[in-house]
Amino acid sequence: CDYISKRQNRLGYYLTDKSGDAIFIDSRLSGHKRREVQFHEISHLLLDFPCDFLDFRQQFHAEIFALIFMIPKRKLLEYMHLPFDEIDYRLIPFLKRRFWIYEKFGV
To answer: How far apart are CA 100 and CA 30, in angstroms?
Structure first.
């Protein structure tokens, strides 16, 4: 079955059917956000069983997967020791969410 049968204003989505798997990413995305969405959708491809809808747990796991791949633990620890003004401001929202994952799960 398809993960998403139609686009529905999504930044990205994973689709599977008899002919194979496909990941679609909104072409207007760039930089850190584009990578986050790509990793999020790849996690659905690798970790989830296809169904008609994704539950909260699957979305939460995909979000964690994406942020860990974007900012590995080693890199996160490096950022934690940098002065705030030396960090690319576009990365700050991702670092905040990634730090929460580190504190909560230790990864």
So the answer is: 24
Mapped onto helix, strand or coil, the DSSP state of residue 1 is coil
In our burial notation (b when 16+ CB lie closer than 10 A, e otherwise), range 96-106 reads ebbeebbeeee
* Cα 8 from Cα 15, distance rounded (Å): 13
Tokens of 28: 């207007």
13, HSE (Cβ side, Cα atoms, 13 Å)? 15
Q: What is the Cα–Cα distance from 38 to 32, expressed in whole angstroms?
A: 10
End-to-end CA distance of the chain: 32
Distance between CA atoms of residues 6 and 53, nearest Å: 12
pLDDT tens per residue, range 36-82: 999 999 998 898 766 666 678 888 999 999 999 999 999 999 999 99
Identify each DSSP E strand in the chain by its residue range: 12-17, 20-25
